[in-house]
Amino acid sequence: MSLMKSMVADDWQKYIPGLLLCVFFAFVVMNIHHVLAKYHKANEASLAIPRLEKKLSELEAGGASAADIKKIQKKLAKHRKALAKVGGKPGDSWKWATLLYQDLQFKYVAMLLIGGIIIRNTIGVAKIFLPGIGIARPLIKPGIIILGVHYVWSDVAKVGGAGLILTAVFIFGTALAVMYLCKKFGVSDGLGGIMGAGTGVCGVSAIIATSPVVKAKPRDMAYAIGTILLFGTLMLFVMPYLGQALDVSQSQFGAWAALAILNTAQLIAAAEWYGEDARNTAVLINAARIMLIPFIVMYTVWFYDLKENVSADQRGLWNTIKGKFPIFILGFFILVLLNSLHMPFLGGPKVAHTPFWAMNAVYKWFFALGFAGIGLSISIDDMKKAGGVAFLVGSGAATAKMILGLVAVLLIGSELLQVTGGH
Amino acid sequence: MENSNGNNTKNTQQASEKVLSSEKREDLWAIIIAGIILILCCISPDAIYTFFKKSLFIF
User: Fold this and answer.
1) Looking at the partner chain, which of B9, B30, B48 has a beta carbon nearest the beta carbon of A145?
2) Is A14 exposed, middle or buried (0-12, 13-18, 19+ CB in 10 A)?
3) Is the ipTM of this complex over 0.85?
4) Domain that holds residue B37
5) Could B45 and A212 be called an inter-chain contact, meaning their C-beta atoms sit closer than 8 Å?
6) Structurally, how many domains does chain B consist of?
7) CB nearest A142 (choices: B33, B41, B45)
8) Cβ separation of B41 and A138 shorter than 8 Å?
9) What is the distance between the terminal CA atoms of chain B, rounded to a whole angstrom?
10) How far apart are CA A167 and CA B10, in angstroms?
11) CB A143 within 8 A of CB A279
């Protein structure tokens, strides 16, 4: 009974209005995304059908193999289906849909984030909705767990292994650099410590985890969280376009986002925006990264030599791991394990009428709810709280990490970072 | 002055512990929700697929 009680917040009723607002916002945006995708596919089909019909008649006249003819017929059937969905015929044009959906990448992620920011900072969000909006963001976590059906252990070993080495180097390198520079420029241990942990590893979670260790003041936490949010928000919008301009592959972008963006929800939003393969790589590398949170806390204790500040029951590696480990990631790995066992009754994300196929249809809705929560909670006023030398050091280090991360993933190449899903 | 610093540290520590315990709660809820979805998908994969891929899109 007490376990049940501890699982539900005492004042849970206050979360309902904001949560319902996020559900409504996500529902509207997902439907707009669906319409745009439908007309974009119809536009592509309208252009492709005459070309494919011509090719098919040429192949038939030239006595091509049955397999080649079947391939073209299959493509034609797919395009005709896409066209039939909007009641169009070959030659019809929906260029606006392709412009919005493909050229401007105006997908549900962008609509929820940009729309949310506009709503929050123009018409505003009533106070009654704020607690629920805050609780919508973590709904990305069940989505991440469900995404486990996309991976097999060979992916975890290959991409996760490469990701673990990359993130370990970048996390500890950035944290050490920021803490050293903050000490050198006379920034307090509290602010320097949480800024180092925040820019090095998982943004806000790491700041919260390390704040009691370095005895950070509430103002320090506001500065550090403001800096992380400001930088993460900028990168969230800049990186997908930068990636396209630099012709970065999907898997490389996923790894780059996981290294450069400090907040789990923001990096998954950026990667999802870029494409499904990018998201698959980003989720796996992020899983490797957030497992390092307990170690960054230990590292901060060591750097500032603060053992006497840590209470006896929180000392030691095991206690730190137990206290700070993000346990939801275990759910993700359980699904990876189940998918790797290739059990016929569970199927796979592409095997129709199986449990994992059905689960694959669900995760986007959790992401949409989470992204609605992020967009509606980004307040320009909160970001103005970032400031001072610590801001310059923190954002300088985060920018350096972004550039070095890009160089690293370009050097590593696409193949090592590619998630196969067992295919 | 020292007293106010002590209070500040205590407040930060309490706030941090509160947030961390709520993070743990979020993590557990995430696992529970994903587990429920797995069970529902095992019971009726087609109904879940149709609901999330078709029924929720009204246009």
Assistant:
1) B30
2) middle
3) no
4) 2-55
5) no
6) 1
7) B33
8) no
9) 63
10) 33
11) no
Between chains, do B45 and A355 touch, taking CB under 8 Å as contact? yes
How do residues A149-166 score in pLDDT, each as one tens digit? 888 888 777 777 777 788
* Residue in the block written with tokens 């944290």: A175
Token pair for A267 = 């990096």
Residue B20: CB atoms within 10 Å: 17
The size of the A-B interface in CB pairs under 8 A is 111
Residues B7-39 pLDDT 10s: 555 565 555 555 556 777 888 889 999 999 999
A356 → chain B, closest CA residue: B41
Can you tell me the distance from the alpha carbon of A313 to that of A328, in angstroms, rounded to the nearest whole number?
23
Q: Is B14 on the interface with A (CB under 8 A)?
A: no
The domain segmentation of chain A, as residue ranges, is 36-97, 108-417
Instruction: Point out the residues of chain A with pLDDT beneath 70.
Output: 1-6, 187-229, 293, 296-324, 383-391, 393-394, 420-423
CA–CA distance, A396 with B42 (Å, rounded to integer): 49
Q: Is B45's CB within 8 Å of A331's CB?
A: no
Which residue type sits at A165?
Answer: I
Say whether B22 sits in a helix, a strand or coil: helix
What is the 3-state secondary structure of chain A? CHHHHHHCCCCHHHHHHHHHHHHHHHHHHHHHHHHHHHHHHHHHHHHHHHHHHHHHHHHHHCCCCHHHHHHHHHHHHHHHHHHHHCCCCCCCCCHHHHHHHHHCCCCHHHHHHHHHHHHHHCCCCCHHHHHHHHHHHHHHHHHHHHHHHHCCHHHHHHHHHHHHHHHHHHHHHHHHHHHHHHHHCCCCHHHHHHHHHHHHCCCHHHHHHHCCCCCCCHHHHHHHHHHHHHHHHHHHHHHHHHHHHCCCCHHHHHHHHHHHCCCHHHHHHHHHHHCHHHHHHHHHHHHHHHCCHHHHHHHHHHHHCCHHHCCHHHCCHHHHHHHHCCCHHHHHHHHHHHHHCCCCCCCCCCCCCCHHHHHCCCHHHHHHHHHHHHHHHCCHHHHCCCCHHHHHHHHHHHHHHHHHHHHHHHHHCCHHHCCCCCC
Decide if A223 touches B, using CB distance below 8 A: no
The alpha-helical segments, DSSP class H, found in B1-59 are 2-43, 45-50
Q: By C-alpha distance, which of A172, A159, A151, A157 is closest to A412?
A: A159
Tokens representing A330 are: 């275990």
Reading the block at residue A120, the tokens are 């929050």
